[in-house]
Design goal:
The protein has 302 residues and is of the alpha/beta class. The protein folds into two domains: 1-99, Rossmann fold (3-Layer(aba) Sandwich); 116-289, Thiamin diphosphate (ThDP)-binding fold, Pyr/PP domains (Rossmann fold, 3-Layer(aba) Sandwich), CATH 3.40.50. Helix content is 32%, strand content 15%. A six-stranded parallel beta sheet has the order 6-5-7-8-10-9, sandwiched between helices. The radius of gyration is 21 Å and the shape is globular. The two termini are 37 Å apart.
């Protein structure tokens, strides 16, 4: 990941999923260079991106396109060498959008229910230099676009293939590859029910990820597209899975105070995995998904 402290860092561009100031800045640019990216419906914001091919250079391991022309048999590393060796014309930069400051998270008093937005705001304060963020598809990944990734923090997500059930198995490979890291796993309840019991493998190898289940009692992203009983899943007691495996710690979270306590205790507990079952409103959604829904609704209305 690019450290977001860099002065030229804008934010994440993915059409309507990203912040509006980032979207406007990128789409108004006279030259957009996309390096190593594979354009899909996800990173194009469900095709809400507005990138003019006349002002676009697109290069990856499979192809090189400049404007409307595709150049065959050009290796990506050769193109990168030539780009770095070229005398690119320098110009004064306009005002670069800056990500909003995350600020110190303050728990709301009383029995304030957790929302998706507030969950990710709390996680911004929770991450450290040895955190590797691993997201599953859906609002776990959409909401994570607003996380502030520091230098040396890593981020893994299935944004290309969007394979549901990615995150929990992926944390095994991530922590075995880098034992000094501690995965922070963000997974929806629907995705967890597909592969989440790979926590058994996590326990067998003595790994210690912190797994947060965004539990909105079904396939939440699909509810915002077309709702129905087919989006429901059986309600599991996710926080009691450590009892089944005989290892790990589980937390049931419904309020901001409970979330804060669970995260603090999970950070201190390093002997095994922690699973935090965060109950969310059935139709609650992240700011990124809210932006996408509003943009798609506008397209449908016109």
């Amino acid at each position: 990941m690019v450290g977001e402290q860099h002065p030229f860092y804008l934010g994440v561009y993915e059409g309507a999923l990203g912040r509006d100031d980032v979207r406007r800045y990128v789409e108004a640019s006279d030259c957009v260079i996309m390096l190593g990216a594979f354009l899909t419906d996800i990173n194009l914001g469900i095709f809400t991106a507005q990138l003019d091919p006349l002002r676009t250079i697109y290069a990856n391991s499979e192809k090189l396109s400049i404007r409307y022309h595709t150049y065959e048999n050009v290796r990506f590393k050769d193109f990168m060498r030539a780009l770095l060796d070229s005398k690119l014309r320098h110009r004064a930069l306009g005002r670069i959008p800056k990500p909003p400051a995350s600020g110190a998270f303050r728990v709301k008093p009383g029995e304030t229910k957790v929302t998706v937005k507030r969950l990710f705001q709390r996680l911004n304060d929770f991450m450290s230099a040895n955190t590797v963020v691993i997201t599953d598809v859906g609002d776990a990944m959409f909401g994570a676009t607003d996380l502030f990734i520091r230098h040396r923090t890593e981020f893994l997500g299935p944004a290309y293939y969007t394979s549901m059930g990615f995150a929990v198995p992926a944390c095994i490979g991530a922590q075995l590859a880098n034992p000094t890291s501690r995965p922070l796993v963000l997974v929806g309840d629907g995705a967890f029910q597909m592969t989440g019991m790979e926590l058994s493998t996590v326990a067998r190898y003595g790994l210690n990820p912190i797994v947060i289940v965004l539990n909105n009692f079904g396939y939440g992203t699909e509810r915002h597209m077309q709702d129905g009983s087919y989006n429901d899943v059986l309600a599991w007691n996710y926080h009691r899975i450590p009892e089944i495996l005989g290892v790990g710690r589980g937390y049931l979270v419904e309020t901001e105070a409970q979330l804060d306590k669970a995260l603090i205790e999970s950070r201190k507990w390093e002997k095994s995995f922690c699973l935090i079952d965060v109950h969310l409103g059935t139709h609650d959604r992240s700011p990124a998904l809210q932006r996408l829904a509003e943009r798609l609704a506008l397209r449908l209305s016109t």
